[in-house]
Amino acid sequence: MQTSMDYQQVLKYPLVTEAAIQSIIKENTLVFMVDVCANKKDIRNAFENMLKIKTKKINTLINYDGTKKAYIQLPPENQAATIAKRLKILA
Amino acid sequence: MARIKVHELREKTKTDLFAQLKELKTELALLRVAKVTGGAPNKLSKIKVVRTGIAQVLTVISQTQKAKLREAYKNKKYLPLDLRPKKTRAIRRRLTKHQASLKTEREKKKEKYFPLRKYAIKA
């Protein structure tokens, strides 16, 4: 079962809820909605290929309505806040 | 970016098309972020345009690929199954026109020497 997803289909959009913004500021993590068929390896691949950002740790969960959320923790040298500003997640 | 014109796409090479596809997909990703963060209406309406653009590029890629494959197999004996005519299962199993029209020598001679005659009857 080695089929990996096409990396442009993995990440859908970043979350901008209050809780997501808190995790950007406090825990240096970005929160993304992700395709349900993606696994953590795919997410890491997609992140590093599309956005050229190194990741430290990825946690995923599946919501009640069948969508997948990924908490992507960045290493301390990448500041999540500046990246969020670059991606226009934070204004 | 201007609206994609498909007749211009058809003149591009495969690598060009894939590069354009990648561009379009990254643009879509940006627009999706804008949608979530409350973007301007001109950005939100662009999503549909970009999605149809992606569909057009993919269509051109697959159409040219199919056309080239058909050319490559043109005079070969065996075609791949998805290049053969699909029609219906029953139609594919019927005798071909040529096979159905074959007649024995005997039958051909009969038809030649004893054709169907037309008569007229005097009233």
UniProtKB/TrEMBL annotation, chain A:
<dbReference type="GO" id="GO:0003729">
    <property type="term" value="F:mRNA binding"/>
</dbReference>
<dbReference type="GO" id="GO:0003735">
    <property type="term" value="F:structural constituent of ribosome"/>
</dbReference>
<dbReference type="InterPro" id="IPR013025">
    <property type="entry name" value="Ribosomal_uL23-like"/>
</dbReference>
<dbReference type="InterPro" id="IPR012677">
    <property type="entry name" value="Nucleotide-bd_a/b_plait_sf"/>
</dbReference>
<protein>
    <recommendedName>
        <fullName>60S ribosomal protein L23a</fullName>
    </recommendedName>
</protein>
<dbReference type="GO" id="GO:0005840">
    <property type="term" value="C:ribosome"/>
</dbReference>
<dbReference type="InterPro" id="IPR012678">
    <property type="entry name" value="Ribosomal_uL23/eL15/eS24_sf"/>
</dbReference>
<dbReference type="GO" id="GO:1990904">
    <property type="term" value="C:ribonucleoprotein complex"/>
</dbReference>
<dbReference type="GO" id="GO:0019843">
    <property type="term" value="F:rRNA binding"/>
</dbReference>
<keyword id="KW-0687">Ribonucleoprotein</keyword>
<keyword id="KW-0689">Ribosomal protein</keyword>
<comment type="similarity">
    <text>Belongs to the universal ribosomal protein uL23 family.</text>
</comment>
<dbReference type="GO" id="GO:0006412">
    <property type="term" value="P:translation"/>
</dbReference>
<keyword id="KW-0699">rRNA-binding</keyword>
<keyword id="KW-0694">RNA-binding</keyword>
<dbReference type="Pfam" id="PF00276">
    <property type="entry name" value="Ribosomal_L23"/>
</dbReference>
From TrEMBL, chain B:
<dbReference type="InterPro" id="IPR045059">
    <property type="entry name" value="Ribosomal_uL29_euk"/>
</dbReference>
<dbReference type="InterPro" id="IPR036049">
    <property type="entry name" value="Ribosomal_uL29_sf"/>
</dbReference>
<dbReference type="Pfam" id="PF00831">
    <property type="entry name" value="Ribosomal_L29"/>
</dbReference>
<dbReference type="GO" id="GO:0006412">
    <property type="term" value="P:translation"/>
</dbReference>
<dbReference type="GO" id="GO:0022625">
    <property type="term" value="C:cytosolic large ribosomal subunit"/>
</dbReference>
<dbReference type="GO" id="GO:0000463">
    <property type="term" value="P:maturation of LSU-rRNA from tricistronic rRNA transcript (SSU-rRNA, 5.8S rRNA, LSU-rRNA)"/>
</dbReference>
<dbReference type="InterPro" id="IPR001854">
    <property type="entry name" value="Ribosomal_uL29"/>
</dbReference>
<keyword id="KW-0689">Ribosomal protein</keyword>
<comment type="similarity">
    <text>Belongs to the universal ribosomal protein uL29 family.</text>
</comment>
<dbReference type="GO" id="GO:0003735">
    <property type="term" value="F:structural constituent of ribosome"/>
</dbReference>
<protein>
    <recommendedName>
        <fullName>60S ribosomal protein L35</fullName>
    </recommendedName>
</protein>
<dbReference type="GO" id="GO:0003729">
    <property type="term" value="F:mRNA binding"/>
</dbReference>
<keyword id="KW-0687">Ribonucleoprotein</keyword>
